[in-house]
Amino acid sequence: MAPLDLDTRFTFDSFVVGSGNRLTCAAARRVAESPGTSYNPLFIYSASGLGKTHLLTALGNHARRIHEDLAVVYDTLDHFMAELTAAIEAGNRDQFRDRLRDVGLLLLDDVQFLAGHHRLQEELIQAWDTLLARGGQVVLTSDRPPGEIDGLDDRLLSRFSGGLIVDIAAPEYETRVAIVRRKAGERGQRLLDGVAEAIARISFGNVRELQGALNRLIAIQELEGRSVGADEVGAVVAGAVAPAAGASAGEFDRFMADIAGAVGELATATAAEQAIAEAIMRWEAEGYRTRRLEGALAHEPSPESVEALLRQYEGDVERLRTVAGEIAAFDAHATELARLDIFRNPDRVEDAQALLGEVRERSRPLPAPPLELSFATLQLPDDSLAVRAARAASERPGLRYNPLFFFGPERSGKTAILGTLAAEIQRSQPEMQVAFTNGAAFAAELIQAIERNHVEGWRERWRRAGALIVDDVDALMDTERAQEELFHLFDALHRGGAQLAFGSRLAARALAGMEARLRSRLESGLVVELDAPSEVEAQAGDALAAAGIGGTDAPGAAAASPEHSGAAPRAPAVELDDWFLDREKLPREWPQVAEWLIEELD
């Protein structure tokens, strides 16, 4: 059997991970790093164009890079069937079977075509049993789950079900943005602001169609010598057609690496071979993997090629050392430094760079609060409800009114109050990491992390916060991944005792594009409605905005206080069940929350 080669362009690093494929990608990485020990077989299914073949090929490339002696075979069912047919016609069925005996990792693409091919199913069962008996790993992909493949032998169905069956879902908005930016970057194309987001908002059937639309836009930029604007995207991609299924796994040839460790034959070695052998002994003594050098001995290297080989190998060793040093500079106790399987293997420089990216991402400082703000700069009555609540929270962050949720129209003062809360906490507790951001910036950072495959580092960075203050959280309406990440971040920080505060133009219940579970958390603490500002307050807001603080929503008044409006703040006359979305998270017994707050804050 002459299986197909793996396309080395397909790697885990070039695969954009989103919520729809995260589990599948994690399982593929686990199998690549420890084939035959878990998830055997691994069965991946999805609709066409969502990345099955990319992930399968990335798995094979990763496994080859980190396991020296592992024989990896990649094939499509079409090609496998053609080879079997040819072997049967030539009377070489036994030889065909023998070729699978030494395989350690079998990657089989498009197994949905097993339907109706009973002879092929029988051969696959025998090959499978032979491989598993030797501790080998099987990974398969299909456009449908095993139970929906017509005419599948019960023995095969049983084997499929005995491992892990995972699917790849269509990417959500944030992942689509990251994919567009990644693909444009690979093409060396710069997209104007908002273009990636405009493409991602279009409903495509799969990633191939998304990439086809991007290709059309890039072609216009290249041929017309101009940049396409976000307002043109709809018209530009309207005529884009889904790309044909042209390039597939059937275009590759077999790659089988043969390692020859002929170091013991130095007596008859050439000068070039002698140089390689000495390098092998030197680097092995220092603890580095030398698979690349050993492989070169099998090909009678010339002096010129040996010189280039050793120079590149030494350069990769130096790059590993440099990356390790950079990681240590960020975090001397980083667990990544213990990954000797990476930092002692010059063939895994890219993996080391990926670890550095994660460490760099989680080590970045959180967005800092505006320290120039204070309660004195608000120019509001100290006894206004919002100011009193913010002051109480700043004095005991995480212990009183957590979370805080301010909502009101533009220029109502929520940005200034939130910024002041963040600044006061930072001044009183300088050792605490206080994050002050807004919904749009939060989502933009997430998209960048997805684009760079640094989501884990991004999460760890945000979870360091001792106080998280997010203004304009309503900007996250109709997002998917950003809401999911904020939900989990909220829970993690709240469990750790961090202070949480949010601002919005709308009440939490009015955030129609927000998940119910996130809305319920936003209003699970103290909710304060802010009034539109008076003329004097609006002028104060303009002055603060001119100074670059708070924008148009700067220091407007908070909810009414007795002196400020002539009446005590009042909560709507609602039943207790109407006020709280989740009775299990009921924080107080009084339905008139505003009245209770006035009494306690006095």
Question: Overview of this structure, please?
Answer:
Strand 3 (105-109), helix 5 (118-133) and strand 4 form a beta-alpha-beta unit. The radius of gyration is 30 Å and the shape is globular. Helix content is 47%, strand content 8%. With 602 residues, it is of the alpha/beta class. The protein has 25 helices and ten strands. The model is unreliable at 240-269, 534-540 and 554-602 (pLDDT under 50).
Provide the descriptors you would attach to this structure in a database record.
single chain, 602 residues, alpha/beta, Rossmann fold, Helicase, Ruva Protein, domain 3, 5-stranded parallel β-sheet, globular
User: Poorly predicted ranges (pLDDT <50, ≥5 residues)?
Assistant: 240-269, 534-540, 554-602
At the first level of CATH, what is the class of the largest domain? Alpha Beta
**How many helical elements?**
25
Kindly report the name of the CATH homologous superfamily of the largest domain: P-loop containing nucleotide triphosphate hydrolases
Q: At CATH's second level, what is the architecture of the largest domain? A: 3-Layer(aba) Sandwich
CATH topology of the largest domain: Rossmann fold
Strand order of the largest sheet: 2-3-4-1-5
Q: Would you report the number of β strands?
A: 10
Mean pLDDT: 79
Largest sheet, in brief, is: 5 strands, parallel
Spell out the blueprint of helices and strands.
Layout: H1 22-33, E1 42-45, H2 52-66, E2 72-76, H3 77-89, H4 93-98, E3 105-109, H5 118-133, E4 137-142, H6 154-161, E5 164-167, H7 173-186, H8 195-200, H9 207-224, H10 233-237, H11 271-285, H12 291-296, H13 303-330, H14 340-343, H15 349-363, H16 385-395, E6 404-407, H17 414-428, E7 434-438, H18 439-452, H19 455-462, E8 467-471, H20 481-495, E9 499-504, H21 516-522, E10 526-529, H22 535-546, H23 562-565, H24 576-579, H25 593-601
Parallel strand pairs: 1-4, 1-5, 2-3, 3-4, 6-9, 6-10, 7-8, 8-9
